[in-house]
Amino acid sequence: MTVLGPEASDRFACFGSHAAVHVLGPGVERSAAQAVSEAKRRLLQCNQDLSRFVAGSELRRLNADPRERVPVSATMVRFVEAAVEAAARTRGLVDATLLTELEHAGYRSDHRVSLPLAIALALAAPRQPAQASSSLRWRAVRVDHEDHTVIRPPGIKLDTGGIAKGLLADVLGDALRGHASFAVDCAGDVRVGGSGAMPRSIRVASPFGDEALHEYELVDAGVATSGIGKRSWLDGDGRPAHHILDPSTGRPAFTGIVQVTALAPTALEAETLAKAALLAGPDDARRWLPHGGVVVFDDGSHDVVDARSTVLSHV
Amino acid sequence: MQSAQPRPDPDVVRRPSREEARRLAQERTRARAQRIRRIRVRAVGLTVALFIAAWATIFVQLSNGHDPALAAARPAAKAPAVTASSGSSTNAAGSAVGTLDKAGVSVPAAAAGSDTADPGATASPQTQDSTASSTDTSSSADQSAAPAQPSTPSPAPVTTSQS
Are the Cβ atoms of B98 and A219 closer than 8 angstroms? Predict the structure, then answer.
């Protein structure tokens, strides 16, 4: 019988927030501690490449490149492909091509201090569900796997946002699959699994405080939380703003939902579903949570959605 | 006893008249009062500014949900009670155990310590028992709940929140 030993863990600043890696049990080639160290190194490196707040990052070079076909790294190919897939799956509701609108709304730097959620909600415009943009810019973005290039009309800028976090949680999770249990937490986008099939407790935090709204015991799954309580500010006109935009207006979306946690087979899928549910508003949020999740409304109440409450393909 | 101080030269220092002395005293009194008022205003202003800054800092921190007192008071070994139904239209139990296969179908979790990594594997009776008993959300974090395997460490809980 293999001795698992204590779980190796590390929590560190990343993605403008915090990331954490937990590994239990040795792998084929590495100990748990070595696996955590390697995962941390890869996460920090990917954050350097994919952040628009890091000078000289690959994302900034891509967004500034005047060419239509831009050679990029394998990581960037995966991200762009994931972003396009997320937009296609949500019919443009989750749109990574809104960086220009995001910067226009005031998100030009990494907001470490956020506007208190209660104040933002009190000052916000009347609630309405978000809709896809009629421009459908994301349809003009594609990747070429053979020569590792991103193809898009110059001027379309991409924002990694939560898509990169979900993607990286999955990529690192795949690398840790040989260990008895692992969890990769990329600032709220979590991937858990492991060869030991050991249940891990996943707590859903309230956007109004630190208390846990719900708790899951998951063996192999992705979990992601998307919300408007963090990275928020007052814009130049004194209006509350945050980083999740309504693609149809290019303005921060106030739909009546402040946070959604989604479950899915992968963290990337969970991230896509959580954001789509938040943007869809209270009436349609459940349709985007086929694997279950937690929806938190403006008034602080929340709704735990059962798995398979609807089938996503019916949307 | 007589003082030995020299008398001032009358050509250099003229003794002020009574009127001049009164005016000089009034000016000095007024200047002193202005200095005192200015110092007092600065002290009060600085105190108020410091208070507002400290108050605003603490307000923003607490509003964002970072209450150090609450964080320190929560022991890690005890999972918080699930509050899924408080003030909401909650329709599910406080916790769920399972895995998601590639088709998105939720299946019961395999027993802890199992060697299989197949997420779509059919649950054994033992697995089902494990699933049923784990509806108590604190059981997985409570070492005393699994006396048969005292040496098996439990995976640490992870909190998902918006970032």
Answer: yes
* Nearest-by-CA chain B residue for A227: B162
Across all residues in chain A, what is the average pLDDT? Answer: 90
| Residue A200 φ/ψ, nearest 5 degrees | -125, 140
- How far is Cα A252 from Cα A313, in angstroms, rounded to an integer? 28
Q: What is the token pair recorded at A199?
A: 């249940």
- The radius of gyration of chain A's CA atoms, rounded to the nearest angstrom, is 19
Out of A24, A201, A301, closest to residue B87 by CB: A301
A195: closest CA among B92, B119, B133? B119
Which residue on chain A is closest to B64 by alpha carbon? A116
Cα A67 to Cα A51, A135, A140, A149, A156: the distances in Å are 21, 21, 14, 11, 11
A280 and A244 Cβ atoms separated by less than 8 Å: no
Give the C-alpha distances (Å, rounded to integers) separating B74 from A212, A224, B84, B139.
Answer: 12, 24, 19, 17
The reply to whether residue B160 touches residue A224, judged by beta carbons under 8 angstroms, is: yes
Chain A positions touching B156 (Cβ under 8 A) are 7, 9, 22, 183, 200
Burial tier of B25 (Cβ tally within 10 Å: 0-12, 13-18, 19+): exposed
Task: Given the cut 0.90, state whether the ipTM is greater than it.
Answer: no
Residue A203 to residue A216: CA distance in whole angstroms = 6
Asked if residues A288 and A312 have their Cβ atoms less than 8 Å apart, the reply is yes
For A202, nearest residue in chain B (alpha carbons): B158
Distance, CA of A2 to CA of A90 (rounded, Å): 44
Supply the pLDDT for residue B96: 52
CA distance A83 to B55: 42
- Pick from B87, B69, B63, B158: which is nearest to A229 by CA? B63
Residue position matching structure tokens 């406080």: B94
Name the minimum distance, in Å, from the CA of A8 to any CA of chain B: 10
Going residue by residue through chain B (163 aa), what tens digit of pLDDT does each one get?
Answer: 455 566 666 566 678 889 999 999 999 999 999 999 999 999 999 999 999 999 999 888 887 766 666 554 444 333 333 222 333 333 333 455 555 544 333 333 333 333 333 333 333 333 333 333 333 333 333 333 334 444 677 899 999 988 7
Quote the pTM value. Answer: 0.68
